[in-house]
Structure formats: C-alpha cells, structure tokens
Amino acid sequence: MTRVLYELAAADPDRRFSPFCWRIRLALEHKGLAFEGRPWRFVETDAIAFSGSDKVPVLVEDGQAIAESSVIAAHLEAAYPDRPSLFGGAAGAALTRFSIAWTDQVLHPALVPLLLLDIHRHLDEPNRRYFRESREARFRKPLEAVCPDPEAQRVTLRRTLSPVRAVLRSQPFLGGESPLYADHAVMGAFLWARGVSVQALLEPDDPVEAWRLRMLERLGEGSRALVSG
Amino acid sequence: MTRVLYELAAADPDRRFSPFCWRIRLALEHKGLAFEGRPWRFVETDAIAFSGSDKVPVLVEDGQAIAESSVIAAHLEAAYPDRPSLFGGAAGAALTRFSIAWTDQVLHPALVPLLLLDIHRHLDEPNRRYFRESREARFRKPLEAVCPDPEAQRVTLRRTLSPVRAVLRSQPFLGGESPLYADHAVMGAFLWARGVSVQALLEPDDPVEAWRLRMLERLGEGSRALVSG
C-alpha cells in the first residue's frame, strides 16, 4: 500500500509546522504505519483539490483521500484495529474529544500569538502574502501588533497548561503509562512551535517540559530528522 | 452493607453544595449503589475524624472509611466492576484525569467568585465565621469584594466552558452516548451552584445548558429531592 500524508511546510520543506498534521504524523507512528510525508504550502490548493479539502492534513492510502485530523485519526483506529489503539476503546475515544477541544480552543489560541512572526519569517513570498492577509484579517491587526509582550504571553501559555501539568504530576502521559491520541493532540502544539521557533516556551523544571522531552524521544526516525534542525 | 456518604451541607441540611461530594453522589447512582447521604458542615471535623480526613466527601462502607473524591471514585470502580463503569477502562480512567484537572483548576475558579456570597448566606453562624475567614485568607480580600461584576464573571464562565461546549456539539455526554465520571466531575460544579444560588449561569440555547438538563433528568430519586427546592 502507498500512504502519503500531505503536511504544511515552510519554504524549507523540512520545517513542518501544522499542529493538526503533527497529530496525524504521531498517530501514524503510533500505529506503526509507514508513510511518505509530503510537504505542502498554503497556496498549493490545486495539489490537494482531489481530496475535496483545501487544507492539510490530507492522508492518501492507495488513492483514497481523507481530510481533517479527527476524521483521519478515527479512520486509522477503525482500519487498523490490530495495531496499538489511539484511544483505548469507545469511552476513551469519547473522552479524548475533550482533550482535543481544549487543545484547539484554549492551548492553540495561547500559543499562536507567540509564533506568528516566526511562521511568517520562514515562508516564501507567495505564502507570506497569504499568511499575512489571512491572519491579519483574523486578528484584525498587523501581525507585528498581535503579541506586544511575548514574555507575558509565555506566562499566560504556562498558566494555560495547568490542567495538563496536574495530570502529568500523577502519570507519565495523558493516556496513562504510554501516550494516546490525547498526547499527540497536545504534542502537536509543541511540534508546531518547534518547527518554526527557537524560543523556550516552558521552564526546565516544568512537568510539561519533562513530558515534551519524553514525547520527543519517542518520535520515529522520519520525524526525528524533521525536528533535529 | 451500610453505606454512608458525608456531604457538605448548609444550615438547611438539604442544601448540599460541595462539587466534590456531588461527583461521588453521581458516581454512586451511576453504579446503582444505595447509600445514605449524611449532611456535614465545615466545622464538624470531629464527626469525620475517624476517617483521617478533615474534609468531605468521606464514604463509609461497613465501617471502612475512604476520603477524597478521586480516591473514592477509583475505589468504587475497582470494588464494583460488574456495575456500569465510571471510566470505560484503563485508558478512559487515565484520560478522565484531564477532565477532572480542568474542572478543578479552570472551571471551579471561574465559578467560585459567583457563589461565595450565596454560600455564605446559607450557612449558620459558626460555619459563616469559618467560611468568611478561610475564603478571605485565600482571596486576600473581603468576600464582598471578590466578584465586583457578576455579569462579567458569568461571561468569563461561559467562555471558560468552550471546550465542553465543543464536545457537546458532537455527542450528548463527555463520556459519549451516556455519562461517565468526566460528566459527573463537570456536573458537580453545576450542582454545587444549584445548591446555593438561583442565578442562571448559562444561556438557554447553550449546548452546555441542554447537557445540564439531561444530567438533571438522570438524577436518582434521593438527589432529585435535594435539587427540587
């Protein structure tokens, strides 16, 4: 079987920086499924038009395209039930949705102001134009004005992580003794940041930082190459 | 078997207002286990000294005392494996901890400013003194100064609920098709509020409000009597 994951990339194709694409990369590694991660940029909508989506991640297995990270994760769980589970059963799948919703609605908004300029810097000209226009419309201000005080925003981010921190004080992963898709969802945010930025988001003695390092250690070989730069 | 749950109560013994006690009440009903809910007040530490705890919930089964809501919930799951599961398996138990941590660390702090004066009003004199002293030490201001703008605080509370709302747009309960302990943890906050306050915390068209009403409908008979006032 051929398996291709279209992933958001910067001008340098090894800078992959979509948190949603990282979730699926981690999910594929979790399932032990080989794949080609194909770099894709914002403006290349024609290249994935066949999928019916204008956004990544798009997973293509033997010509069958699936878009949207949660749909792809559910597909992987259903299609490969003999591989390690992403959710730990039906109840786990239902409960995971809260971690995902929290990541999307609370964690990402706390992180994105810290990354906008880093992302912009790493794009080529046509993607820079797209990124600036779409994000300035969303934030209703110039990119440069979204995060006037990065250190204060990092403090907000660390405070935002308090429920993750509380869990990681009592168990090594959100999934318990080993990671589940809930871990991949939260880790997607940190790999997004790592793809474009060198800033230290967490304090060295933060249990969330220890967990982030444990998650990095577990990356597959292909992903290691992407985050080693 | 005799089974007694010590629950935080106001001067009126039917006003039960600890979110942690409500979690266990809902968990006992979830497991279909009969129990006596015994009202207990802040200053009655002597009455539960036998448990080694100075706080409720305390569950006593045939003379064996267990304190702390998460410990009690884990006990119920382990001791009654043939009854409906609170967590849906080991992965579910691990994933539930994030919902609990979020409830404790994010939802409760958004709610408590709205309830302090209501709680105070419903206590008898010795408990009022205890409550005012302990809470004013915690907030470092008079009870009356903690929430100068209740309507703004209710807006904050509703915004805080956004990840719960997102999940409830796609499934009827946090646990999926039926409630799990994650639902009981979040519902504990709303039953805490209902025990002492008549303010409408949620908008009528909020999916969280629809879920709250579904949860109320599922209450056992004994709990219905407590919330009908």
Q: What topology does this entry show?
A:
The structure is a homodimer of 229-residue chains.
Chain A: E1 3-8, H1 19-31, E2 36-40, H2 45-48, E3 58-61, E4 64-67, H3 69-79, H4 90-121, H5 125-139, H6 150-160, H7 162-168, H8 181-196, H9 207-217, H10 221-227
Parallel strand pairs in A: 1-2
Antiparallel strand pairs in A: 1-3, 3-4
Helix pairs in contact in A: 1-3, 1-8, 4-6, 4-8
Briefly say what this structure is.
The structure is a homodimer of 229-residue chains. Chain A is an alpha+beta fold and 229 residues long.
Notable features of this structure?
four-stranded mixed β-sheet; 229 residues; Glutathione S-transferase Yfyf (Class Pi), Chain A, domain 2; homodimer
Cα distance, first to last residue of chain A?
30 Å
User: Biggest sheet of chain A, in brief?
Assistant: 4 strands, mixed
Flag low-confidence runs of chain A. none
What is the CATH topology descriptor of the largest domain in chain A?
Glutathione S-transferase Yfyf (Class Pi), Chain A, domain 2
Helix- and strand-based class of chain A?
Answer: alpha+beta
The overall pLDDT average of chain A reads: 97
Tell me the name of the CATH class of the largest domain in chain A: Mainly Alpha
Helix content of chain A: 55-70%
Give the count of helical stretches of chain A: 10
Rg of chain A to the nearest angstrom? 17 Å
Shape of chain A: globular
Strand percentage of chain A lies at 5-15%
Oligomeric state as shown: homodimer
* Total domain units of chain A: 2
Q: How are the strands of the biggest sheet of chain A laid out side by side?
A: 2-1-3-4
List the helices and strands of chain A in order. EHEHEEHHHHHHHH
Number of beta-strand segments of chain A: 4
Largest interface: A-B, 33 and 33 residues
CATH architecture identity of the largest domain in chain A: Up-down Bundle
GO molecular function, one term (chains A, B): transferase activity
Keywords (chains A, B): Transferase
Protein name (chains A, B): Glutathione S-transferase family protein
Domain GST N-terminal (chains A, B): 8-84
